[in-house]
Specification:
Blueprint lengths: L1 H14 L25 H4 L6 H4 L2 H8 L4 H13 L12 H16 L10 H9 L4 E5 L9 E5 L15 E7 L2 E4 L5 H4 L2
Antiparallel strand pairs: 1-2, 2-3, 3-4
Helix pairs in contact: 6-7
Length: about 190
């Protein structure tokens, strides 16, 4: 057990430099930039996935500087106390709602080696709830499979305090379903 923890710590330290200055404002950080190697594996990865879309650059930097589990738990509790739940879920805190949606994302969108909450579809599902409609369009290149289109038609505010885009496009690449960028769409569709 101790040797696996040491191996994890060494591997994580090669991937991340906790406490490094804030990334360019508004620029998403890669998962390895969101690891706090001073914490246990479960807490070290707390920012990876949709939580990083909810956190400000200052909150991310502050979390990456935490050195012990108790301080991390206090930070996480304070983080969630400042968040509002998605409308339409009376009686649930933002943290409870997030955890419920994350568990559901794990069930629905898990992919090989990725829990659903850390996938692109899982992230959008957690932030904004289920889409109002899902459509599939055949892709030009067969190896990519169908383009999966999520439509958010009714007004709502997500856990991030923002309204979702009207449309999210996803495409399968290898074992992972990822966002299809606007530049890719003309190449993907017939």
């Amino acid at each position: 057990m101790k040797s696996s923890w040491i191996c994890w710590l060494i591997a994580a330290s090669l991937l991340a430099v906790p406490g490094a200055g804030a990334a360019e404002r508004g620029k998403p950080r890669s998962p390895d930039e969101l690891l706090n190697v001073f914490l246990s594996p479960g807490k070290a990865q707390w920012l990876v996935g949709p939580v990083s879309r909810l956190a400000s650059d200052e909150e991310i930097d502050a979390f990456l500087e935490i050195l012990d589990e108790e301080e991390a738990e206090r930070f996480i509790a304070e983080f969630w106390s400042r968040r509002k739940p998605i409308e339409g879920a009376p009686g649930l805190t933002a943290r409870q709602q997030f955890e419920h949606l994350a568990e559901e994302a794990d069930r629905q969108f898990g992919e090989p080696t990725y829990p659903g909450r850390r996938t692109d579809r899982g992230t959008i599902f957690i932030l904004y709830g289920p889409p109002d409609e899902v459509d599939y369009k055949p892709a030009r290149r067969h190896q990519l499979g169908d383009l999966e289109v999520w439509l958010y038609q009714r007004p709502r505010i997500g856990l991030d305090g923002k309204a979702p885009k009207d449309v999210y496009n996803f495409v399968r690449q290898g074992d992972l379903t990822r966002f299809a960028t606007g530049a890719e769409l003309p190449k993907l569709l017939p």
